Amino acid sequence: MKLSIDHKSPIPLHLQAEELLRNIITDPQYADGKLLPNEVDLAKQLAISRTTLRQALNKLVYEGLLIRKKGIGTKVAGSPVSSKSNNWLSFSQEMNARGIPIRNFELHISWVNPEEPIANFFEINIAKKVLKLERLRGGTDGPFVYFVSYFHPRVGLTGDEDFKRPLYEILEKEHSIIVDLSKEEISAKVADKFIATKLEIEPGSPILFRKRYVYDQGDRPIEFNTGYYKADNFIYTIESRRE
Question: Quick one: which of 46, 40, 61, 38 has its CA closest to 16?
Fold first, then answer.
């Protein structure tokens, strides 16, 4: 693809660069994750400053069309992962149903004293240890969600379970716990240094934060879960029907 900008045009250079980048995105050669030309070479080829080029790149990164990784480069973003709030499946089950391959980049299990909000939800004393499960998950392009789950002691999890399997399948088949109700809170946040490192993004980048309260068939609390999602490749949809 020949790349050029009309320096005699009244259209600002950064807008021309932005339009050029939008055309590059549609090129099939970049659909498979191939990196775009680096900033230095592209700026020289277009005879514009890196600041002007970066202004155009930032716009497309903000729109979720490009993904930039420090020390690696910029590439076209894949189709964002989507999750529906009324679809009662574990994350693994839902992604499998959509044909999206998921892998665990990290998986940590520990026994901790719950913080007060978690202890209040479980209606237990903060001196009572609970199982904490941390999972960094994603796809072929890298991690895009960091989950932290805490489980009520009555659930019976030992920590020896194979947590690479769907979580709610483990609860049902191994512990006779059937999840029945989920209450969720969703908000926008910026990534702190810890979350940014996990998700391989810059500190201060926008993320989707979801807090989930899970109950069994007797409306008893069984799981307190938080999820931190990369904003550029995850869409959370809510579907409701008027009765």
Answer: 46
Residue-level pLDDT at 152: 97
Cα→Cα distances 150→116, 119, 201, 228, Å: 13, 10, 25, 15
Instruction: Encode 160-185: b = buried (16+ Cβ within 10 Å), e = exposed.
Output: ebebeebbbebbeeebebebeeeeee
| Cα 170 from Cα 176, distance rounded (Å) | 9
pLDDT in tens, 199-216: 999 999 999 999 999 999
Which residues have C-beta within 8 Å of that of residue 40, sequence separation ≥ 6? 50
Residue 178: name the closest of 90, 85, 238, 102 by CA. Answer: 90
Q: What residue type is assigned to position 95 of the chain?
A: M
9: tokens are 């045009």
Nearest to 96 by CA among 105, 83, 108, 106: 83
Contact 67, 218 (CB under 8 A): no
Q: 195: which 2 tokens? A: 């979350």
Largest CA distance in the chain: 72
Contact 109, 170 (CB under 8 A): no
Q: What is the pTM of this model?
A: 0.62
Segment 91-119, tens digit of pLDDT: 655 555 555 667 889 999 999 999 999 99
- Token reading at 84: 């529906």
Alpha carbon of residue 88 to chain centroid: 19
